[in-house]
Amino acid sequence: MTMENGEIPENANEHCPGTQSESAGKSDACEGCPNQEACATAPKGPDPDLVVIAERMATVKHKILVLSGKGGVGKSTFSAQLSFALAAMDFQVGLLDVDICGPSIPKMLGLEGQEIHQSNLGWSPVYVDSNLGVMSIGFMLPDPDEAVIWRGPRKNGLIKNFLKEVYWNELDFLVVDSPPGTSDEHISIVQCLGATGIDGAIIVTTPQQVSLIDVRKEINFCKKVGVKVLGVVENMSGLSQPVMDFKFMRTTETGEHIDVSEWVREYFREKAPELQDLIACSEVFDSSSGGAEKMCREMGVPFLGKVPLDPQLCKAAEEGRSCFIAQKCGVSAPALKIIIEELIENNGFSRMLLSSA
Questions:
Q1: How many Cα atoms within 13 Å fall on the side-chain side of residue 87?
Q2: pTM assigned to the model
Q3: Which residues are bridge partners to 181 per DSSP?
Q4: In 71-124, which residue ranges form alpha helices assigned H by DSSP?
Q5: What angle do CA 71, 72, 76 make, to 5 degrees?
Q6: What are the tens digits of pLDDT across the range 305-331?
Q7: How far is CA 121 from CA 57, 101, 131, 167, 184, in A?
Q8: DSSP for 23-85?
Q9: How many C-beta neighbours within 10 Å does residue 200 have?
Q10: Which residues contact 72 (CB under 8 A, 6 or more apart)?
Q11: DSSP code, position 95
């Protein structure tokens, strides 16, 4: 499967402005590039790839980016569960993983080991269900442990190919899971999808300042490039789980930890059965600064809600399944459901059901 790089040559310097840019071959980033002279003298014009991408995206009603300025906040988990939820509502959903160096979506959708197939219509997504298709570089790697060590131009080229070559058919939603930060991949996806209409971005954070500092940059990035912030989700908002699921330890005089979980559970069952249904909560991250909700008020963007750190949700992601089935994620699934329903209602997405019925 060839990967054409459109306006950015594969052997270009890291911060290549693009062959169609007015500064092509003339900027500081072009110094020493083997393409410098050709780019400087080549005629400039609109990128023909954007026309192809617009044609591909014409059958996609809504495009949602999932972003975060910080890594490790659960962005891919949210993207996966959002896609599962939308598909369960009978929407036609595509999930595009553009985290080139850390593609975790195949595992989170239970699709590890799958491969992309090519037809006369283009690259076929890998399907979880008939109405949930997935595309990721993870499907292209011969070895899942292989590191993707690519410079910016090659990453941008693959993203452009995903948008040009993948045949999604008719989609209600295309969810784009992005890497953390505001780097080449983000600029590329916004430039390529901009003309086709991006509905907006959902930004994921955790409650502490270390995360919020970077997320503020992501919000400002969206404002600068003209992408609407649909809302911010505070993920891992305190550890919450049924008290009977906890492991209980006792520390001896020598500092040794002894597991007394079964003794505690038996004590609850016999002495305090009314306590067995309690949910125990604990703040893992410091939210004394006000967390994402305060940040949203200060920056004038919607706050969608909080999702607790739920070990069952982590397990669902590891096993590649929806947290909304089998009622195993009794703490996180209801919180996610409220957030997703609010997202749909606030942005008028629900009206689409009437028009497509």
A1: 25
A2: 0.84
A3: none
A4: 75-88, 105-108
A5: 95
A6: 999 999 999 999 999 999 999 888 999
A7: 14, 27, 18, 6, 28
A8: TTTTSGGGTT-TTHHHHHHSPP---HHHHHHHHHHTTEEEEEEEE-SSTTSSHHHHHHHHHHH
A9: 18
A10: 180
A11: E
